[in-house]
């Protein structure tokens, strides 16, 4: 019997494969060791392979595609309804095999090694930014216990750290001074790592054509542009800008029934990192408009006059997401419409 569809449940060492024919008859449902996986699919005739989208799924999708197979990645949340009962590798592989054949199923685009490398740069940057924030908070908290207040702002904290390492120690016991020196040294080292990541992202954004196009959009800088291209590539997997905004979780949650339309808060589904970058960028734009209304976008100025600040920034992020999709798919720079 010829296998036409395979559900592959990924793991670290032991994988589960579930194969069926065109009529739906089960041909195999068995575990495979990691070393056996590629050899197994190399012997198999080209077929449709479904996998849950995860950190390692893009690697395996690229490897299995070399054998002529059609590989589709499914968000795990869309596989769960096809799990019949219980939790095991065999049940999960069967559910994946069933879900991948659904005509209305939504799939995740397979990322290239270049996209994954770029995303690794973003993930490490996000890590060191969190560590830097933790160090500043710890430094400020310890100094407050001795009655020393550290002004708000990152520049104030790094400036204080440089002064301490230059010999200007606070008037506290020697043990406390040693602890403060260690924190200051670690803070400056972490701040250097953040700046290195920013410079690396800026260099990549200057060299990539699509990232340069995205940076023509107000509120989109090198970090946001590189993250978007690394995550969605050309953006053609989305049919329109509204679908991209919905994927980011920037559209209202629909709870309609009986012909009555009820729209709630945004869904916050999809990529949390991209959504955060867009909201932060639009928050910066909104602050600029409030400070300098004469130089801001008239539409944005009117929106801030009518709506609460946070609601307005979310609406701006929604609109920017649609503009991003249009810029990527049309491969044209953003041009503002005349007022």
TrEMBL record:
<protein>
    <submittedName>
        <fullName>Transposase IS116/IS110/IS902 family protein</fullName>
    </submittedName>
</protein>
<dbReference type="GO" id="GO:0004803">
    <property type="term" value="F:transposase activity"/>
</dbReference>
<dbReference type="Pfam" id="PF01548">
    <property type="entry name" value="DEDD_Tnp_IS110"/>
</dbReference>
<feature type="domain" description="Transposase IS116/IS110/IS902 C-terminal">
    <location>
        <begin position="212"/>
        <end position="288"/>
    </location>
</feature>
<feature type="domain" description="Transposase IS110-like N-terminal">
    <location>
        <begin position="6"/>
        <end position="146"/>
    </location>
</feature>
<dbReference type="GO" id="GO:0003677">
    <property type="term" value="F:DNA binding"/>
</dbReference>
<dbReference type="InterPro" id="IPR047650">
    <property type="entry name" value="Transpos_IS110"/>
</dbReference>
<dbReference type="InterPro" id="IPR002525">
    <property type="entry name" value="Transp_IS110-like_N"/>
</dbReference>
<dbReference type="Pfam" id="PF02371">
    <property type="entry name" value="Transposase_20"/>
</dbReference>
<dbReference type="GO" id="GO:0006313">
    <property type="term" value="P:DNA transposition"/>
</dbReference>
<dbReference type="InterPro" id="IPR003346">
    <property type="entry name" value="Transposase_20"/>
</dbReference>
